[in-house]
Amino acid sequence: MKAYIIILPKLPVSVAAADRCIKSANIPIEKFEAINPDNAEKLMRNYGIQWNYPWKGEEYDMKAGVKKSAYHTTNPLKRVACFLSHYTLWKKCKDLDEPIMVLEHDAIFIKPFDDTAFMKAECDIISMNDPRGATRKALEYHDKLQHGHQTIQRVPTIDDLMIPQGLPGNSAYIIKPTGAEKVLQLVKEFGAWPNDALMCKQLIQSLAASKVYYTKVQGTPSTTTL
Question: Do residues 113 and 107 touch, judged by C-beta distance below 8 A?
């Protein structure tokens, strides 16, 4: 399985965090240069997709059946570029026709990775991340995973079903070609959203998380909200 870590090569904190992640891993990890916000609008046009998520307030998406609430974002193009970085890797997964691991630069390994359970699981996109410190209602998410009987479980419900709920932070996940096909189709159908909102259980039933955590977040400053 190929593994990619998204880095901002001109941002020292991103490069340093990615290097720590790579050093902590027991598998080869390839650096993937993040999409530059300055190129985001042109790339969106090239891909033929449009942003369809509010920058302020909230709105109800009747077709998706969820409420879309704006993320705090100082520079919207950074948020778009983050989506595009993941989107480009989803396309790579589809083109390679094999599962890949997607890491953001703030992930770090806390135990040697073993893909056995991930490959056996009948799920398309699977988190390998400790939710604690990585997502909202993190302790509730953690408790629900740990009380489950299976190593790989469908993502738990931790809030009202009108609120998109998915992976416990999108900083470390396995995506299979079938998952890539599904999420790419969602972009065609619903437009571009922040990747962690688009990859939600309301739109992807085969979304899962491992109760065995292989990564956690390093706690580096966000590069999309600032």
Answer: no
Q: What is the dihedral of CA 83, 92, 179, 211, to 10 degrees?
A: -80
The answer for residues whose C-beta is within 8 angstroms of residue 100's C-beta and 6 or more apart is 1, 2, 3, 4, 89, 92, 93, 174, 175
Alpha-carbon gap, residue 8 to 15, rounded angstroms: 7
Annotated domain spans of the chain: 2-217
Q: Strand 107-109 to strand 215-217: parallel, antiparallel, or no bridges (unpaired)?
A: antiparallel
Let me know if domain 2-217 sits in CATH 3.90.550.
yes
| Other CB atoms within 10 Å distance of the CB of residue 137 | 15
State the average pLDDT for the chain. Answer: 96
Which 3-state string (H, E, C) describes 100-147? EEEEECCEEECCCCCCHHHHHCCCCEEECECCCCCCCCHHHHHHHHHC
* Residue among 137, 135, 134, 115 nearest 126 (CA): 115
Q: At what angle do helices 76-96 and 40-47 cross, to 10 degrees?
A: 40
175-206: burial string, b at 16+ Cβ within 10 Å, e else:
bbbebbebbbebbeebebbbbbbbbbbbbbeb
The model's pLDDT over 17-50, given as tens digits with 9 standing for 90+, comes to 999 999 999 999 999 999 999 999 999 999 999 9
Contact 83, 187 (CB under 8 A): no
